[in-house]
Amino acid sequence: AQRVTQPEKLLSVFKGAPVELKCNYSYSGSPELFWYVQYSRQRLQLLLRHISRESIKGFTADLNKGETSFHLKKPFAQEEDSAMYYCALGGGADGLTFGKGTHLIIQP
Amino acid sequence: DTGVSQDPRHKITKRGQNVTFRCDPISEHNRLYWYRQTLGQGPEFLTYFQNEAQLEKSRLLSDRFSAERPKGSFSTLEIQRTEQGDSAMYLCASSLPPGTASNEQYFGPGTRLTVT
């Protein structure tokens, strides 16, 4: 069965500090991993996906198949990064499997 | 095209009533998904369509839940005999098919259902 674990419900860091949001997955096939973000009063939107290997808004995430992880990182947090972040797993014909989300708060 | 739209945005209903939600996807997207999100949880996949064909419905929560996409454009999600446990945000998403260069799922704003 597919499963996504985001161990931190809430993460609070100061502006300018590094950020790492953890995501671990369980999947027997070839996974597609995504990070979605939801800013206050906005809809869920894609932040990045592992196959594109892009850096979006300064965020990066590397798929580690050995550790079954897809942690989201940013070297210097900004106040506008405050949001809910969801890690999601695809790869089959079905919809995405989401983690429970991490609420990131960037303190000034 | 302003993206995926959902109607209504909020619905309050009494236990036992039927409710129907509508989703209008991005016009060129032939895949449409329904998710449910309860408080403190991530979205939970329910069902999806490719054009008018419903390709997965085993994840619908009970036989009280049904979805249609009769002409391959908009979709409806119906919940019959609502229960208090059905209170949640219902999200719709659409995408191009897998294998397309950009097949990310675009989400709508959701319909918040409250069952009293």
Brief digest:
The complex is a heterodimer of chains A (108) and B (116). By secondary structure, chain A is an all-beta fold.
Folded structure, characterized:
The complex is a heterodimer of chains A (108) and B (116). Chain A has 108 residues and is mainly β. In chain A, the strands form three sheets. In chain A, strands 2, 5, 6, 9, 10 and 11 form a six-stranded mixed beta sheet that branches. A three-stranded antiparallel beta sheet of chain A has the order 3-8-7, with no helix packed on it. A two-stranded antiparallel ribbon of chain A has the order 1-4. In chain A, 0% of the residues lie in helices and 44% in strands. Chain A has no helices and eleven strands. The mean pLDDT of chain A is 92. Chain B is mainly β and 116 residues long. Chain B is 0% helix and 47% strand. Chain B has no helices and eleven strands. In chain B, strands 2, 4, 5, 6, 9, 10 and 11 form a seven-stranded mixed beta sheet that branches. Chain B has a four-stranded antiparallel beta sheet with strand order 1-3-8-7, with no helix packed on it. In chain B, strand 7 and strand 8 form a beta hairpin. Chains A and B meet through strand 6 and strand 10 of A and strand 5 and strand 10 of B.
Unreliable runs of chain B: none
Beta-strand content of chain B: over 45%
Number of helices of chain A: 0
Computed over alpha carbons, the radius of gyration of chain A is 13 Å
Search tags:
heterodimer, A: 108 residues, mainly beta, 6-stranded mixed sheet, 3-stranded antiparallel sheet, 11 strands, 0% helix, globular, B: 116 residues, 7-stranded mixed sheet, 4-stranded antiparallel sheet
